[in-house]
Write a structure and sequence with these properties.
By secondary structure, the chain is mainly alpha-helical. It is built from five helices and four strands. The two termini are 30 Å apart. It binds a DNA duplex (13 and 13 nucleotides) through α2, α3 and β2.
Amino acid sequence: MRRIKPAATERSPTDCRDACARILAAVAAIPRGTVAAYGEIAAAARLPGRARMVAWALKQAPPSARIPWHRVLRSDGRIAFPEGSDAFRQQVAKLAREGVTVVKGRVARRNDGAKSLDALLWGPRRE
DNA sequence: ACCGTGACGGTAT
DNA sequence: TATACCGCCACGG
């Protein structure tokens, strides 16, 4: 596991060392072609209520870690970046390459699939 | 130590 | 459905 941050922040039980590792692992576990919400990842990383920390972890993660960050969306299925921004377009492109389409900043419902966004988005997750 | 700022989320309006 | 608020937590000024 790579060093996430210099010693400065590694002092409290809530610091990055373990939490961050779990977060990145959770994101890496999202199946290709599916997506998950920041809050979902936080919960999976045993950090309920700390969705913002997921965003932070992804931001500071080096590209070399190859984390599938594009599979992480807001709980309402919308892209977290401002529409039109570089990151926004990049995420849409990456998702499209996995068969996930985005309309107006929000992940589109699968034509024949689930009736609700949740069923589509989180469907692959075990029940 | 205080405070504003987020790749957030849930509830109320 | 779309906003507005407020709770959340780590960072940086």
